[in-house]
Specification:
The chain is α+β, with helices and mostly antiparallel strands and 220 residues long. The protein has three domains: 88 residues, no CATH class; 62 residues, Nucleic acid-binding proteins (OB fold (Dihydrolipoamide Acetyltransferase, E2P)), CATH 2.40.50; 51 residues, no CATH class. It has eight helices and five strands. It has a five-stranded mixed barrel. Helix 2 crosses helix 3. The protein is globular.
Amino acid sequence: MTLEELQERLLAWAAADERQPWLLEARRAWFALVGEPHDEDKSFEQRMNGLLDHYLFDFRPDGTHPTLELFLRDGAGDLTTDARAQVREMGRARRALFEVRKIHPGKVDLEEVLGGARHEVVERRTLAALAKGDIIEARLLPHAGQLYFSASFVYHPREVRKAILKEARRRVKEAPREVPPEPDEFLAVLSRMALRLERYRNVRVESIYDFDAPAPRGAG
């Protein structure tokens, strides 16, 4: 099965009526963390995709197993052995803050801002908004031995690239020796800042991305 087919099958099961309470619980927790988008926000679709990614790959409806694992247990009985293995592989999706290192035809080289891991991502579309040096939040989906972008992105303005990298270095320095800092809290702070920037265009970007006075929880 293609990656798109696997995602559609997983989402159809996870979004069924009987599992709507799971999705609503995931939505409340996720948007409380990263900021809740409004219909008129430019990033609304990407942020809703971020919620779905969180629900499928991170959220644990039973407190123990991610939604994807519950799908494999309860909803994938008719899948072939190979398809089930592909779903398990997809479960190793990686969400992180990345710096774009290089853009090739059909591929993008990324480096994790926290930790420094390098990744080569297959991307056959032309990403006009993406350039070398950009800082983005993305989720990478493994499939058939390669990495692909999910549909969830948070773009951060180039004007504050140095400030973000400086804050990342501070967090790495303050983390226990040889242990990369936990990315989720940093990603949440940055996500709320990016959302506030969309809504307060008359405020200087440097004032919103001020790590000495972080943006308040929520983006409104």
